[in-house]
Amino acid sequence: xxxxxxxxxxxxxxxxxxxxxxxxxxxxxxxxxxxxxxxxxxxxxxxxxxxxxxxxxxxxxxxxxxxxxxxxxxxxxxxxxxxxxxxxxxxxxxxxxxxxxxxxxxxxxxxxxxxxxxxxxxxxxxxxxxxxxxxxxxxxxxxxxxxxxxxxxxxxxxxxxxxxxxxxxxxxxxxxxxxxxxxxxxxxxxxxxxxxxxxxxxxxxxxxxxxxxxxxxxxxxxxxxxxxxxxxxxxxxxxxxxxxxxxxxxxxxxxxxxxxxxxxxxxxxxxxxxxxxxxxxxxxxxxxxxxxxxxxxxxxxxxxxxxxxxxxxxxxxxxxxxxxxxxxxx
Amino acid sequence: xxxxxxxxxxxxxxxxxxxxxxxxxxxxxxxxxxxxxxxxxxxxxxxxxxxxxxxxxxxxxxxxxxxxxxxxxxxxxxxxxxxxxxxxxxxxxxxxxxxxxxxxxxxxxxxxxxxxxxxxxxxxxxxxxxxxxxxxxxxxxxxxxxxxxxxxxxxxxxxxxxxxxxxxxxxxxxxxxxxxxxxxxxxxxxxxxxxxxxxxxxxxxxxxxxxxxxxxxxxxxxxxxxxxxxxxxxxxxxxxxxxxxxxxxxxxxxxxxxxxxxxxxxxxxxxxxxxxxxxxxxxxxxxxxxxxxxxxxxxxxxxxxxxxxxxxxxxxxxxxxxxxxxxxxxxxxxxxxxxxxxxxxxxxxxxxxxxxxxxxxxxxxxxxxxxxxxxxxxxxxxxxxxxxxxxxxxxxxxxx
Lengths: 330, 400
Fold this sequence. Notes:
Number of domains of chain A: 2
Oligomer: heterodimer
Number of strands of chain A: 15
Distance between the termini of chain B: 100 Å
Strand content of chain B: under 5%
CATH topology of the largest domain in chain A: Rossmann fold
Shape of chain A: globular
CATH architecture of the largest domain in chain A: 3-Layer(aba) Sandwich
Number of domains of chain B: 2
Order of helices and strands of chain B: HHHHHHHHHHHHHHHHHH
Structural class of chain B: mainly alpha
Largest interface: A-B, 24 and 20 residues
Largest sheet of chain A: 5 strands, parallel
Low-confidence stretches of chain B: 110-117, 173-348
Mean pLDDT of chain A: 88
Strand order of the largest sheet of chain A: 3-6-9-1-10
Helix content of chain A: 40-55%
Largest sheet of chain B: none
Structural class of chain A: alpha/beta
Helix content of chain B: over 70%
Mean pLDDT of chain B: 61
């Protein structure tokens, strides 16, 4: 427990300001898809990693870049290709001539040491390179040549992937998918939104983003999220929901028993609870509610439900399964 | 007390108010449903069953009131605890689980309420928000009293039943024989003599149109029962044992003169009984017992006198020597009276084959139609009550 009620209230107010600022700044560049922006920001304030999935040209990279521009944080972008090596992500020791005739190995940090890392088209990287992200995403540190290098907070990896071009790609294994806090889907904008996009991007003036809030502020706001309370009833509701994604557990709806091979892990429950807390702060509350849990369940669960053969063959989507899971949980 | 502690006190007080309100609502709802259901049951019982006809208005009202009060008391006793109240209040005030979380903030304090106020600023803020939520509306506004939906159909059913019970005449609501059997059972409270007396009337007096009276259907049984009926019927007419027995002799004679048909005076107790007069049943029972005593004394006095065997109208009673003989013995045995008795026994004796024939016909019909056991008594009563048409002999007095 930190601070007094006044401190907490001030921090909560800052949280709401920051959230509103980021949303408005992103909205100046990225048109529409309010839910997607909200979920990305919640993931960001929870210090989680997001996987944004969508066809090319819908602004996935632009969204992440705008987010990084709107806060005064270090931003790095990794364009994942099949020849991308792990050292290109994590960094490596290089021989540096420190003085004439004096050479030594010096650690040269890779792009993973930024505050916001964009791993563009992560499914094009080889599994070896994808694995290089694993330790950094989960442990928030990188070990190179026996030396562990911590990653500064705040830290978020936001990866994108293209679901329709599967040629020459390496789909992320389930273990790595589970490291992502949220999986967000970018949908095709409507006519009005596309017209707005045309107006903004094909004219003379380009929208600019004003950075505000530094790393320290973002880190303190992330701490504030963890102070938000969640009642036992609400917590159990979230856990029931996670439990219901597993087939043959007695809690699962029929569609789960039929089409799901393996359900969500406890890490999914952690994501749901943290995201619900952040959403509560956005709503001006200091406690997470059942409704918050419902709202964040879909992005937290939809990449953690693994379909079985029947589900794949009948093209059952994980979204439809999770919708029934949410409904059945109470 | 700090501001935070005051807010916690306010929250607990409001929660207790909500709890009291929930108690009230649960009690009223349970009372409404139970009261209406009981009312419907009482109406059905009073209107459609003969037993219900005996239930007075006061008793019915007492049943409804007691049931309603019991339901209300049980519902009040099963009121939700504070946490359940908080959940309901959360839904009612749209608190987004604020009240539940605030209440949990109390319980998470290891040192108890009020001792660590200020140590959990987030908890205090949650309590403040919860207080704002629950005090924004009163418990009456948040938890309006709404009767269960089933109350409307229940009330409608009660109204329809009440109208039907008032509109349908009582005779339509009763099955043939239901009234007599039930009322006889109620009136005499186990006094078989009264019902036997009633059966006597039915077995000897078919209605003028040939229809079966309810008593005939329910009452007539075996010939032995008919004989017993005669004794009961004879005694029924005389509340005073000895005097009744004396009168029985003269009455029997007059009955014999009229071909065994009972006089209107014979039917008098039966009519009283049909009207459901309890005193009539009681008198009948007393008379029956008194008659039995008189019969015993008659046996002692007259020994084996069988002259009064035809005291009753049934010829079968002549085979039952003791009771009928008692009735005859009580009367002064004079040659004249003996001859009148012998004369009067002729038509009664002529009734014996008729009864036996009816009995045989009934048995044959029962065997032929494979009548279930519960209906056999009715069939026997039917055949006993309606004799086949016989050519009237000249000089024989006709039946009324």
